[in-house]
Design goal:
Structural class: alpha/beta
Order of helices and strands: HHEEHEHEHEHEHEH
Shape: globular
Helix content: 40-55%
CATH class: Alpha Beta
CATH architecture: 3-Layer(aba) Sandwich
Largest sheet: 7 strands, mixed
Distance between the termini: 40 Å
Strand content: 5-15%
């Protein structure tokens, strides 16, 4: 038994070093270059489709198999605020690879300085967020609501604010603020398995099965900003159920 485990670990490490890591780097450079070439599309629709193909490539080279349920709850003709638990850097590629909507996401401002990835984020219309600056964060939320109203695209947020190593963190109110301001439904999404596929503090993608579950949209039409706390708790509880996670209230 110990010999079999050792063989598995050796194969996994070799696969990570010689297949997965180079595959991620090369696909990011390739698709980032294509995204730059296609940046004449100022609405970002073409860049988003490029990003979807990039995400599918990452899952393949990372030996990750994703099963999806609940996509029938999404109406391609509508805009949404998508909210999801955040356990791994692979969460975004998983969502990009399977959600059939044009959406933009709120990304940490530091990501915009990374070659290829940052260039794509800027040109595709994604929104930078400075987590340690309350005034700048509020401005970003207003920008997101305005973007939804003007372009008809959806927005993706991870309301925990950052990846978590174990349980979910309580949700921040930004997603509820944007959804109410734009008067669009919130869609809770639960992801399972990405923490095992790429844990925190680890650069080797382990691969394996992941699951994405789309919950029932929560309508916000008629809601006021004073109700954002209640909405935040509602979507937090729904995501926790979908992701099969508990919430660490001590956070």
């Amino acid at each position: 038994m110990a010999h079999q485990i050792m063989e598995f670990l050796i194969v996994w490490k070799l696969r990570s070093v010689f297949i997965t890591a180079p595959g991620i780097i090369l696909s990011t450079i390739l698709m980032g270059t294509i995204s730059l070439i296609s940046s004449l599309d100022r609405q970002g629709f073409t860049q988003h489709r490029v990003a979807q193909n990039w995400a599918r490539m990452l899952l393949k080279v990372g030996f990750m198999h994703c099963t999806v349920s609940g996509l029938e709850k999404l109406d391609p003709a509508r805009s949404y605020v998508l909210v999801c638990n955040h356990a791994s850097y692979m969460d975004t590629p998983v969502i990009l690879s399977v959600i059939p909507l044009q959406f933009r996401f709120f990304a940490t401002i530091g990501l915009f300085s990374i070659p290829f990835m940052g260039w794509h984020l800027s040109r595709a219309g994604h929104i930078p967020v400075a987590r340690d600056n309350v005034r700048a964060s509020l401005k970003s939320m207003g920008t997101g609501a305005k973007m939804i109203k003007q372009t008809g695209v959806s927005a993706l947020l991870f309301p925990e604010g950052a990846r978590t190593e174990h349980d979910m963190r309580p949700f921040k109110e930004g997603a509820a603020y944007i959804a109410i301001k734009a008067q669009v439904p919130v869609v809770p999404i639960g992801i399972r398995g990405t923490r095992d596929a790429l844990p925190m503090h680890c650069w080797r993608v382990r691969g394996g099965p992941v699951q994405l579950i789309v919950g029932d949209p929560i309508e916000t039409k008629g809601m006021t900003l004073q109700q954002r706390g209640k909405l935040t708790r509602q979507m937090q509880d729904m995501v926790a159920i979908l992701a099969d996670q508990t919430i660490d209230e001590s956070e």
